[in-house]
């Protein structure tokens, strides 16, 4: 299944943001920052990654609903996309 360019760009931006948050956690650990600050940053990184996953699944689900036969032929029948969604939920 081919994702629209706009979706791919959005996902890449979100992943870069999450990567920056993970780097910030590493820096905070090296600097000996407070646990609560580190946990807050970890939470932000986790949420950013979750958003990437949900956006990806939403795009796939939209595609499957609009093009069910093509999606199934590509190995993404609706039940498979639903299964992927439950992995994130």
Question: Would you kindly provide a brief summary of this structure?
Answer:
It is built from 4 helices and no strands.
Sum up the structure in keywords:
89 residues; mainly alpha; Methane Monooxygenase Hydroxylase, Chain G, domain 1; 85% helix
Describe this structure in words.
There is one protein chain. This protein starts with a helix and ends with a helix. Helix 1 (5-31) packs antiparallel against helix 2. The longest helix is centred in the middle third of the chain and has 32 residues, at 35-66. Helix content is 85%, strand content 0%. With 89 residues, it is mostly helical. It has a single domain (5-88), classed as Methane Monooxygenase Hydroxylase, Chain G, domain 1.
Any idea what the CATH superfamily is called? Metal-sensitive repressor, helix protomer
Tally of individual domains = 1
Instruction: Give the H and E element order.
Output: HHHH
The CATH class turns out to be: Mainly Alpha
Mean residue pLDDT? 92
Number of helical regions: 4
CATH domain fold name:
Methane Monooxygenase Hydroxylase, Chain G, domain 1
Which structural class matches the secondary elements? Answer: mainly alpha
């Amino acid at each position: 299944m081919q994702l629209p360019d706009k979706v791919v760009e959005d996902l890449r931006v979100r992943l870069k943001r999450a990567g920056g948050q993970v780097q910030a956690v590493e820096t905070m650990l090296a600097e000996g920052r407070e646990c609560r600050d580190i946990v807050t940053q970890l939470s932000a990184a986790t949420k950013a990654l979750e958003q990437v996953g949900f956006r990806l699944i939403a795009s796939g689900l939209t595609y499957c609903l609009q093009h069910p036969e093509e999606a199934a032929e590509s190995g993404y029948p609706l039940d498979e996309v639903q299964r992927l969604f439950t992995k994130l939920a």
